[in-house]
Amino acid sequence: MASEAIFHPATGSVQFAIYPDGYDGARIIARIDEEALHARFHAPEGRDADLVQAYARNADSIDALATARYRENPTRAVCLGREDFRA
């Protein structure tokens, strides 16, 4: 499936969809902030498209963390930040 990721200027984050129960299940909207994309995934500064590309290159690991966060508490928004990727 093609990436549904977009840059969301109001929150300074890339917004993307996850499907915790497969594509026939619920579509959950999650976000990763640009600070995390710069610090952890080395997105270049300057263009929104670079942030979306950084997400796309690392979607497997970002989506996995977002899905785990959703499963921890399905009633809470899934917003990933730099602190979520510390060792």
Protein model, in words:
The protein is of the alpha+beta class. The chain has a single domain (6-85), classed as 2-Layer Sandwich (Double Stranded RNA Binding Domain), CATH 3.30.160. It is built from three helices and four strands, in the order E-E-E-H-H-H-E. The protein has helices at 34-39, 48-57, 59-72; strands spanning 6-8, 13-18, 28-33, 78-80. The protein is globular. The termini are far apart.
Question: What attributes does this structure have?
Answer:
single chain, 87 residues, Double Stranded RNA Binding Domain, four-stranded mixed sheet, 34% helix, 21% strand
Tell me the number of helical segments per DSSP (H or I, 4 or more residues long).
Answer: 3
CATH class: Alpha Beta
Domains, number: 1
Distance between the termini: 30 Å
Average per-residue pLDDT, rounded, comes to: 92
Low-confidence stretches: none
> What is the ordering of alpha helices and beta strands?
EEEHHHE
Indicate the percent of residues in helices: 25-40%
Q: Assign an overall shape.
A: globular
- The CATH architecture classification is 2-Layer Sandwich
Count of distinct strands: 4
User: Order of strands in the sheet with the most strands?
Assistant: 1-2-3-4
The CATH topology comes to Double Stranded RNA Binding Domain
